[in-house]
Model the fold of this input.
Amino acid sequence: MTLTYLGWKLLRAVVTMWLVVTFVFFILRLTGDPVAQLLPDDVDQVTIDYYRKLWGLDQTIFVQYWNYFLALFQGDFGVSFRDNQDALQLVLARLPKTALLGLTALGFALLFGIPFGVLAALKKNTAFDRFVMGLAVFGFSMPNFFLGILLILGFSLQLRMLPSSGSETWLHMIMPVFTLGTSFGAQVARYTRSSMIDVLNRPYMRTADAKGAETSRRLYLHALPNAAIPVVTIVGLKVGELIGSAVITENVFAWPGIGRLLTSAVAMRDLAVVQCILMMIALTMVLSNLAVDLLYGWMDPRVRVGNREGANR
Amino acid sequence: MSTSSLLAVDSLVVSIKARGGDVVYPVRSASFALERGQTLALVGESGCGKSMTCLAISGLLPKRGAISHGRVVLDGLDLADQNPKAMRNIRRKQIAFVFQDAVNGLNPVKTIGWQIAEAVALREDVSWHRAKSRALDLLDRVGMPDPKTRVREFPHQLSGGMNQRAMIALAVAGQPKLLIADEATTALDVTIQAQILALIADLQREFGMAVIFVTHDLGLVAEMADAVAVMYAGRVVERAPVAELYAAPKHPYTAGLLNSLPRVDRRRETIQVIEGQVPPINAMPSGCAFGPRCGLATDECRTTSPNLVLASGGALACHHPLTGTPL
Done:
């Protein structure tokens, strides 16, 4: 992989982060005064002004923006308006829980989505294919919160098999992971299927057959490396969606991750915390996109190495 | 059809089950033979069953396709009876394919060297290292410029002609007895086309391969083939040694194909096209399939389909063969 390729991707990642930080900064400050939200209704103007000054909200928005960036570069993400704790520390303390939930759900989705997608493609238009794809449509049409609530009703309230909230044991993970991973897995299955069907019809698959390659060799060495390319792209792009769904899922199951923290911080207009979480989410998406780009280049030589000059096709 | 023939195809019928349960027959009756080291040209317009015949010979028919009648005997072995595993083995060692679209016919995520080495390794039990070095030799042999570099490159980095050379290297990697070149040069520039044809002829001599040349280009046929089998609407309608076929085509369809060929020794006005089209596979006319397009057709042609009858040096399926010196 060429360094220029990597360099451009990194530059793009940095610019994206800057845009996100800027956008979030202005949007949050244009949507209302946090002081009014935080303090009781009957405080006097002097107190309000005191807090305004304390948090730097008395300056113009551009000065605030400048100061915010200066602080960012020194690793200072601000403090929570609520309890004066360091915003970054607050978020980092919750991050592992969300990462655990998200990654497990991602693993769950891939573990089921890819094999079922491949099998459905191989058995295209059979009863099996129709069954799996029907299930997939059901899986991704069902809203997360609805599936989560159904599970709680069934497994917690009726059967009393699984805990409905918290994150203490691995039993607590089952329902949130299933809730978060199902729709993602269903989409992975569909993308894998259509990508695989496309690849199986390519002329090079016939060439492999003409060579006398056996079925497993054609599947694993000839078809899958090609079929995986668009699937990886989609999975990378959908990681953002996964994080979005995680916010909802965490709230449904009282999972103590950054999703729940975000909901309460937004309600309180806790600017520093909200900003810090949104930056984390943006960073995750940027990193996953970067990972996809790198993976993509590694998997697809047409991306990694350009056309030889003068080679006419 | 002599018993010593490398390949004898006899009354081959290929059926394909369509979605709705209907069965269509892309090949309705193909008979021809091919001697060791010889070249047979399979000619005809698109949709006449040439490619399907070749796929049937090598066991590469689509899932819904099958040989429903006839025999395909390669070296004394009836291929129509073989199971898929046996056919795979035959494709590894005895029958090789060169397809038209080499750029898409090669796997985009595997190096040229890998793809050729794989064919070597599938044929014989050699180390991967050995297979790779064989691949390099083969690339060199097929005239790939700078083979040491190309062996590590991917199809998209090569030109169409180079890809076709790689495809040929891959095909001869198994040292086949029979090479099927299905429109192998159609997609290439004329100069490259000539080089590839010369290469195939070269390799044919070197490996002693027989070659089936599928083409709609009768100009190529004259240069390459020993014998010609003309297919129309799923049937072989005329078979003859190449010189005879050119000098005196007996089937009106063959004559029509030859007449539609531009030749430097003729004036331009005499180029004639055959009016009409090949009948669609699910709407064959009764009687001779060529009848509706044939100027000589009579009532007999419209009611009974002519059988392929052996004639001097070849065979013919026509009620009203052309005689004398036509054209």
Remarks:
- Chain B has a mean pLDDT of 87.
- Residues 7-94+176-316 of chain B form a domain with the Rossmann fold fold (CATH 3.40.50.300).
- The longest helix of chain B spans residues 190-207.
- Chain B has one domain: 7-94+176-316.
